[in-house]
Amino acid sequence: MKLTTSMEKFILHWGEMGSRWGVNRTVSQIFALLVLSEKPMNAEEIVETLGVARSNFSNSIKELQSLDLVSMTHQLGDRRDHFVAVKDCWDMMIALAEQRKKREIDPTKELLSSCLQEAKADPQTPKYVQQQFQQMDDFMSLMNTWYGQMKTMDRALLIRFFKVGSKLVGWLGKNK
What we know:
The protein is mostly helical and 176 residues long. The chain has helices spanning 5-20, 25-36, 43-50, 54-66, 89-121, 127-152, 155-164, 166-172, and strands at residues 41-42, 70-75, 78-85. A 3-stranded antiparallel sheet has the order 1-3-2. Helix 1 (5-20) runs antiparallel to helix 2 (25-36), helix 2 (25-36) crosses helix 4 and helix 5 packs antiparallel against helix 6. The chain is elongated, with a radius of gyration of 22 Å. The mean pLDDT is 92.
């Protein structure tokens, strides 16, 4: 695949952003390349286009597949695996949010619930600590509920929801 200047700029920037999000630079660059590719690409095409090591590609593509951002496909007459990225920005957001929830939110919610129950059962735990656990647990429960609603919302409604923005704040009333 021949990269233009703007394509290179995008791929390099995506790699930089990925490293800021805690994702390997090569993982992010492969994803960016596949987003820009009109057709599925095989490993050799990706490795050649980005100039990365085959072993680095293999580990990176596995990570992208585990994140549900890239899938493998096959083409008639070609025994090689080809890869295609999630291209719709809303689908990307939902896939990434799901992974962040699994890795960060779910374990934290589980720990908070456990700490809250232990704190309530332990007379040595100060009331203030119990209150802190309770308010964090309540917050995490609310975020879990909100996420579940956003994830299953009809796409057109979800887009309208995000576009409402400041109108919603005005409708709900502003805080001083």
